[in-house]
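Deliverable D4.2, example record:
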Amino acid sequence: MKLTIIGMDIAKQVFQLHALDPQSGQVERFKLKRAQVLEFFAKRAPSIVVMEACGSAHDWARRLQALGHEAKLISARSVRPFVLRNKTDAADARAICTAAQQPEARFVAVKSEAQQTVLAIHRVRAQLMKFRIMQTNALRGLLYEFGEVLPESYRAFSKAFPAALTRAAERLPAMLIDSLREQWARAQDTDREMAVLERRLANLFRHNPDCQKVADIPGVGLLTATATVAAIGDVRTFKSGREFAAWLGLVPRQSGTGGRVRQMGLSKRGDTYLRTLLMHGARSVIIQGKRSPWVDGLLKRRPFNVAVAAVANKLARTIWAVLARPDKYQASPRATA
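Output generated by the structure prediction step:
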């Protein structure tokens, strides 16, 4: 017996449902308030409930699974072509239902609360990092206007700033020096808050065997290991390492016509934050790690950034292989890193 497919357009207050019985072809439409959704599904026979992978979708999927339904999340990019004419909540729900029935439909794995907790900590840390960069850039720019040139990296900046501020205090008004000193104090507070979050991630790392397995790979550290394991969840979601790399946007885009296919730049689909971490890890492997003949040959044939993207792609494939198999990572003489 085929289950009824229900496309649900979620929102803050009003939810639109489009249900299709695959046996009879009967279509039902419902408009529910937020408080009525769980009560509606509790009384309904088990169904396949499909939602766009957007805000609060994972939470709703977990709640519906607890009620005995099969919850699926689909990318909004896959739904958009099926929204005909005007965009309304009812049209979105119908488009979700239609997109879920396509043979090439790709679904997003439902994340657990533990996974979302780790990813939320990463998002907060990334936001604090942006704040710190903005604060130090402002200080660097303001002091540059008065002839003081400071280095770019935060570590070097923190060492050079006190001396630069002392020199500036000899000839600039006290009210400006006090303002700059307060700005620097805010940047240091932000750095301390980031350190607290990193200690929390380190605690999670110590209690997660998968994170420790992944961290054995050169180029993968605390941040990359915890973020990757939390983002993947069930590694069986991906059939291969290449599919995982494609999910992260670390494979070339393709454009073809007339039987001719061109390889273009990186697709840059998927999680930007996780892709950035892998690119940083790949860059550290090339600059600081022991390079293999494959990497040396790649650097001779291609620009540096192309080589970084290739190593990041290989890092993603290696992470998938380590998580998909019981064995630990073992470096080989011909390995990339």
